[in-house]
Design brief:
Number of strands: 19
Radius of gyration: 23 Å
Strand order of the largest sheet: 1-10-9-8-6-2-3
Strand content: 5-15%
Number of helices: 15
Helix content: 25-40%
Structural class: alpha+beta
Length: about 500
C-alpha cells in the first residue's frame, strides 16, 4: 500500500515555484514577470509562478522516473489500475492512444456508433477499420444507451479477427450497459476491452455508483478527471490492467498525441485530485449523491417534468445501471423543447445545463456543487413550469427514427483513406452515392450518421434532413446548415 496522503508532483512544483533563481528557460513570461496585465488582474501572479517547464526536479512526462512516476503510481492504486498515465490533452488523446496501441492499418475494431469524435480521430490516425454497432435506443425518451452483450457477441462471431472492442461507459446521460458481460465475451477472443469512461472517474469511490470499468473487467479505461472530479480542465488519466495491453505501445502512442510541453498546472491538479479522492472520496461522493437525490426527488414532483431513472423492471442489456449524479430532466410536457428551456434557464434564471436535446436537459452534479446550487436548480425549474408553460402548444411526440431502422452504412474506404483523400464540397443534392469525407453527427441523438469513408445514400440524406426539420442540429461537418457536404473527389 502506498501512502495516499502524498502529493509528490504537487510538492515538487510548489518547491520549484518558490525557489529563487534567474530563469533562462521557457515559458517566456518567467514565472509571471512578463505576463500581460489583464491576465495578472484576473488570475493573480501566484499561478504563473507554478507554470514551469520540465525542470530536473519535475521529471519528464514521456519518460517518468521521478515525481511524475510516483504520482502516476499513486493514481494507479487509487483507481484500481496496474499502470496509469497522466494526460494533459484531455481524454481525447487517451482514446486516440488506446486505438493506436491496439490497432494498425487495416485492423478491425468493434465500437458503437455513438462514440466520441476522439474515437473517429483514432480510426483516422491508426488506419483501423470500424465495425460499428448501434446502441440500444429508447424511442420514447429519444435516448441512445449502450451497445449490448449480444451485439458484441454477434459482431465477434462475424469478425473474429477484430483486434479490440471499445465501449462508451457511461453515456452522456449517465447510463451504463452490461460491461462485465461485454468484458467476458471480449476476453473469450483474447482481445482487449477499451472503455471511454470519460464521465465515470468517480465510480471507484462509492458503492452506490455504477461499477468502475476496471472492476467490471476492462483492460483499458480513459477518464476525464476534470469532468466530475477536482482536476483542471483537460486533465485526464489512462489506466490499464492485465496483460492484453502493451504498456510500451501506450507510452509510444501518447508521445504522438500529447504535447511535448505539458502543463505542470494540469499535471499537479491530477496529483491533487487523486489525493482528494483517495482520502475523502467516499465522503465527497456521499454528499454529492445526497444533493443529487434531493434534486431528483424535488424536480420529479414539479408538474410537467420527469426524471430519467432506471426502468422499473430492472433495466435492459443496454441500461443496467445509472449514475445518479447525472440528472436528465424531460421538459417536453411543458410545451417547450430542451433547447428553449436551456435558453430560459441560462439567460433568465441563472442555471446552466451540461447540454440540451429536443426533449431533455442534462445536468452534472459533482463534488463541487453545494446545497445552494440545488436550491437554485429546483426553484428555477419551479419557475419554468409555472411561468413558461405553453398551454396552447405542446412539443409533438415526434421521436427520432429508431436507430435500428436508420439506413445501412457502406464503408467504401477506411476513415483514414477518406480523411486524407482529395476532397470537394458539393451541394447536398449532388452527393448521393459519393463517399463522405467528414463526420456528420446529428444532435439529438448524437450518433454519427456518416463519417469519412462511408457511401452517402438518398435514405441517409432524407434521414438527416428529417432530423434537421424536427429541430435537431448537425455537428462535425463543414456546413452546419447541411446545404453542402464534403466528399472524396
Amino acid at each position: 500500500m502506498l501512502n495516499q496522503n502524498q502529493t509528490p508532483l504537487l510538492d515538487a512544483l510548489k518547491a520549484n515555484a518558490a525557489r529563487p533563481h534567474a530563469s533562462f528557460y521557457t515559458p517566456g513570461h518567467k514565472q509571471g514577470e512578463g505576463i500581460p496585465q489583464p491576465l495578472a488582474d484576473l488570475f493573480g501572479k501566484a499561478v504563473f509562478r507554478a507554470d514551469l517547464t520540465e525542470l530536473a526536479d519535475l521529471d519528464n512526462l514521456f519518460a517518468p522516473q521521478g515525481v511524475i512516476q510516483e504520482a502516476q503510481q499513486l493514481a494507479a492504486e487509487a483507481f484500481g489500475a496496474s499502470q496509469t498515465w497522466f494526460l494533459v490533452n484531455g481524454s481525447t488523446c487517451g482514446i486516440e492512444a488506446a486505438i493506436l496501441a491496439t490497432c494498425g492499418t487495416g485492423d478491425k475494431i468493434i465500437l458503437p456508433r455513438n462514440v466520441h469524435s476522439s474515437a473517429i480521430a483514432g480510426l483516422i490516425l491508426s488506419g483501423a477499420i470500424p465495425i460499428f454497432l448501434n446502441p440500444e435506443y429508447d424511442p420514447v425518451l429519444d435516448i441512445a444507451h449502450s451497445i449490448t452483450p449480444n451485439a458484441v457477441q454477434s459482431a465477434l462471431q462475424q469478425h473474429p479477427d477484430a483486434k479490440a472492442v471499445l465501449v462508451v461507459y457511461p453515456t452522456y446521460y449517465g447510463v451504463c450497459g452490461d460491461l462485465s458481460a461485454i468484458a467476458n465475451i471480449t476476453h473469450q477472443y483474447n482481445i482487449p476491452l477499451l472503455v471511454d469512461e470519460a464521465h465515470g472517474a468517480h465510480f471507484a469511490f462509492h458503492p452506490e455508483l455504477p461499477t468502475p470499468a476496471l472492476a467490471a473487467g476492462a483492460d483499458l479505461t480513459v477518464q476525464s478527471i476534470h469532468k466530475v472530479l477536482g482536476a483542471m480542465t483537460q486533465a485526464s488519466m489512462l489506466h490499464i490492467q492485465g496483460n492484453r495491453i502493451d504498456g510500451d505501445r501506450i507510452s509510444k502512442a501518447l508521445q504522438l498525441v500529447q504535447s511535448t510541453s505539458p502543463s505542470y498546472l494540469l499535471l499537479a491538479s491530477l496529483d491533487a485530485a487523486r489525493q482528494q479522492m483517495a482520502l475523502h472520496g467516499k465522503m465527497l461522493m456521499s454528499r454529492t449523491l445526497q444533493l443529487a437525490d434531493e434534486a431528483r426527488t424535488r424536480i420529479s414532483q414539479i408538474p410537467g417534468l420527469s426524471i430519467l431513472e432506471m426502468p422499473l423492471l430492472g433495466g435492459s442489456p443496454g441500461f443496467v445501471a445509472l449514475d445518479k449524479t447525472r440528472l436528465t430532466v424531460t421538459v417536453s410536457a411543458l410545451g417547450l423543447t430542451g433547447f428553449e428551456a436551456d435558453e430560459i434557464l441560462d439567460e433568465k434564471l441563472g442555471v446552466t445545463a451540461e447540454f440540451a436535446s429536443l426533449q431533455h436537459l442534462t445536468f452534472i452534479i459533482s463534488l463541487g456543487n453545494i446545497p445552494a446550487d440545488i436550491e437554485q436548480l429546483v426553484q428555477s425549474f419551479t419557475t419554468l413550469a409555472k411561468e413558461y408553460l405553453r398551454t396552447d402548444s405542446t412539443v409533438k411526440n415526434q421521436v427520432w427514427q429508431s436507430l435500428d431502422k436508420t439506413p445501412s452504412y457502406a464503408l467504401q474506404l477506411s476513415p483514414r483513406e477518406a480523411f486524407f483523400a482529395v476532397s470537394e464540397i458539393l451541394p447536398l443534392t449532388q452527393t448521393n452515392k459519393r463517399i463522405c469525407a467528414e463526420i456528420i453527427c446529428p444532435y439529438p441523438p448524437g450518433i454519427p450518421v456518416l463519417m469519412p469513408g462511408e457511401v452517402i445514400t438518398k435514405s441517409v440524406l432524407d434521414y438527416l434532413q428529417k432530423i434537421q426539420a424536427m429541430g435537431g442540429f448537425i455537428s462535425g461537418c463543414n456546413d452546419i446548415s447541411l446545404k453542402k457536404l464534403k466528399v472524396v473527389k
